[in-house]
């Protein structure tokens, strides 16, 4: 069953076609990945799905369990169970970690503490801290994932989930992704990392605002490594320039 369907989606920003007639299906309770180099349109696609400001005016449609999201606000999409984890998690001066996590949480205190321990963090050391510059980017990313796990969403978009994470913490991030799936969520990983791709059940290759290939990791990772190299496209796709993926 498809939890999300993107149908002929296009988006133009600053007179550039950033997304170009994209169609894809996201299967329920699977881990998907969208891979591509910087400027491919990956984060723009995630922003359009989430309905962020500046990304609402689109051609085509985005369906969530068959219902159009096109005219729904971020808040309305969040109420339906869609959430986005940022590449660079926000800082919230004066907001305590416990309040950030507990406000949208569907878990009790001990269950939240268990999530901290799963992420290799002592809850007693973090719950009363503020989400500000005293926390590293990696700590904020793990706290953001804890909050996402605690709210039990249906669809999670994670933009560069390993960005700013030290090697020792990467496996904790991957464990959280697997836990999301075990909890019944569908996950979309936005990435250009092979390590992240290996966590996925299904992968899309994206370039110049288009989906070029899709399939299981065993098929797509070698294609990505062999055929995709950084280029100078300015997000104005030309079929004759894209080349053939073999």
How is this structure best described in words?
With 246 residues, the chain is α/β, with parallel strands linked by helices. It has a single domain (2-245), classed as 3-Layer(aba) Sandwich (Rossmann fold), CATH 3.40.50. It is built from ten helices and twelve strands. Strands 6-9-10-3-11-12 form a six-stranded mixed beta sheet, with helices on both faces. A four-stranded antiparallel beta sheet has the order 2-1-4-5, covered by helices on one side. Strands 7-8 form a two-stranded antiparallel sheet. The model is unreliable at 235-246 (pLDDT under 50).
Write the layout of secondary structure elements.
Blueprint: E1 2-13, E2 16-27, E3 31-35, H1 42-50, E4 59-64, E5 67-68, H2 74-79, E6 82-85, E7 92-96, H3 97-102, H4 109-118, H5 123-126, E8 130-131, H6 137-151, E9 155-159, H7 167-182, E10 186-191, H8 194-197, E11 202-207, E12 210-215, H9 217-227, H10 239-242
Parallel strand pairs: 3-10, 3-11, 6-9, 9-10
Antiparallel strand pairs: 1-2, 1-4, 4-5, 7-8, 11-12
Helix pairs in contact: 4-6, 6-7
Question: What brief labels describe this structure?
Answer:
single chain; 246 residues; alpha/beta; Rossmann fold; six-stranded mixed sheet; four-stranded antiparallel sheet; 12 strands; 35% helix; 29% strand; globular; disordered C terminus
Largest beta-sheet details: 6 strands, mixed
CATH architecture: 3-Layer(aba) Sandwich
Proportion in β-strands: 25-35%
User: Could you give me the name of the CATH homologous superfamily?
Assistant: P-loop containing nucleotide triphosphate hydrolases
Q: Largest sheet, order of strands side by side? A: 6-9-10-3-11-12
Q: Low-confidence stretches at least 5 residues in length (pLDDT < 50)? A: 235-246
Query: Averaged pLDDT, please?
Result: 88
Question: Could you tell me the number of beta strands?
Answer: 12
Instruction: Output the helix-strand order.
Output: EEEHEEHEEHHHEHEHEHEEHH
CATH class: Alpha Beta
């Amino acid at each position: 069953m498809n939890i999300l369907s993107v149908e002929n989606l296009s988006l133009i920003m600053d007179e550039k076609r950033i997304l170009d007639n994209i169609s894809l299906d996201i299967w329920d309770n699977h881990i998907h990945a969208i891979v591509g180099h910087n400027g491919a349109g990956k984060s723009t696609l995630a922003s359009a799905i989430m309905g962020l400001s500046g990304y609402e005016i689109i051609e085509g449609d985005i369906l969530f369990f068959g219902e159009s999201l096109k005219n729904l606000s971020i808040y309305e999409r969040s109420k339906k169970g869609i959430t986005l984890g940022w590449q660079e998690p926000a800082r919230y001066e004066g907001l305590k970690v416990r309040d950030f996590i507990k406000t949208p949480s569907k878990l009790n205190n001990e269950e939240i503490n268990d999530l901290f321990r799963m992420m290799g963090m002592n809850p007693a050391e973090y719950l009363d801290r503020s989400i500000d510059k005293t926390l590293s980017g990696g700590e904020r990313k793990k706290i953001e994932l804890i909050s996402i796990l605690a709210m039990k969403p249906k669809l999670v978009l994670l933009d560069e989930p390993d960005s700013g994470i030290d090697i020792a913490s990467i496996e904790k991030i991957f464990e959280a992704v697997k836990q999301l799936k075990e909890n019944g969520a569908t996950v979309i990983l936005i990435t250009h990392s092979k390590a992240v791709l290996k966590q996925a059940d299904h992968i899309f290759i994206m370039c110049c605002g288009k989906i070029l290939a899709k399939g299981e990791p065993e098929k797509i990772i070698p294609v990505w490594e062999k055929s995709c190299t950084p280029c100078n496209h300015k997000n104005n796709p030309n079929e004759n320039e894209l080349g053939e993926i073999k």
